[in-house]
């Protein structure tokens, strides 16, 4: 899906480890050919290509239907902040960032008319999907990487690999701690920085963690930075200078929650995380200073100081 994917695990048998690693990446590839919008022949691309056509209801794979149901739940819980029907806008802004061109508002608002989960029909009886309006596109980029990372950890656990970490381009899922360790150490980058980390790191195990921000993908216009994370309510990338780190019990939730909390006001973001029994840290850069907001339980993971 256009991103690096790393698997770390411990095994006493190198031959077994090599075979298991190969199976893991085969599993990853199988999901990519379902969820990627970079591949024209993927299941996701075929669904998007059917948008608005007569009798376009499509039977989909169990993996596709499962992630669509989870995305629907995320949409409801986030009050629309997380919306996989954002596809027309995300593809549009992807092109604009590459061309370094800032579009006119009319073009953005025309695409916004194609957005909305009410335009996506899910038939739970027959496991069918239909996009009701011509031009619609789905974008699973804010949920699929965490979902896939979780599936790989589940596969490793079933293969009796108990100490593992999967990193899908920053969407991290882990099982038990490494040998002789209290947990996996995870760093968090400063808002709008690719290289500098916050002065403390996370120590954790049997959890998932994702950090969302605009350090890598953004476009600037008239002195304002617009993130690749698009607010469905405006059609534009969010402009708050913030990083959001979400900790949850599973990779799917951590992934979409970090996106939703990047869009929602801080108070609502913290309330959403608490309602999901998840933890969130929001690091903002305001008036030349870093300001931090977090759920109460986040401090339990905030262990080590970077030397």
Descriptive account of the structure:
This protein is an alpha+beta fold and 307 residues long. It folds into 2 domains: 43-131, ApbE-like superfamily (T-fold, Orthogonal Bundle); 175-305, ApbE-like domains (T-fold, Roll). Helix content is 34%, strand content 23%. The chain has 8 helices and 15 strands. Strands 1-5-6-9-12-13-14 form a 7-stranded antiparallel sheet. It has a 3-stranded antiparallel sheet with strand order 2-4-3, covered by helices on one side. The two termini are 34 Å apart. The mean pLDDT is 91.
DSSP summary, beta strand count:
15
Which fold name corresponds to the CATH topology of the largest domain?
A: T-fold
Q: CATH class of the largest domain, anyone?
A: Alpha Beta
Number of helices: 8
Question: What fraction strand?
Answer: 15-25%
Based on the structure given, which CATH architecture of the largest domain is correct? Answer: Roll
Number of domains: 2
The ordered string of helix (H) and strand (E) elements is EHHEHHHEEHEEEEEEEEHHEEE
The CATH H-level homologous superfamily of the largest domain:
ApbE-like domains
What's the shape? globular
Strand order of the largest sheet: 1-5-6-9-12-13-14
Low-confidence stretches: none
The end-to-end distance, rounded to whole angstroms, is 34 Å
The computed structural class is: alpha+beta
Question: What is the secondary structure topology, with strand pairs?
Answer:
Elements: E1 5-9, H1 14-35, H2 43-49, E2 58-59, H3 62-77, H4 87-99, H5 105-112, E3 120-123, E4 128-131, H6 144-158, E5 164-168, E6 171-174, E7 184-186, E8 200-204, E9 208-212, E10 218-221, E11 224-227, E12 242-248, H7 251-263, H8 266-275, E13 279-286, E14 289-294, E15 302-305
Antiparallel strand pairs: 1-5, 2-4, 3-4, 5-6, 6-9, 7-8, 8-15, 9-12, 10-11, 12-13, 13-14
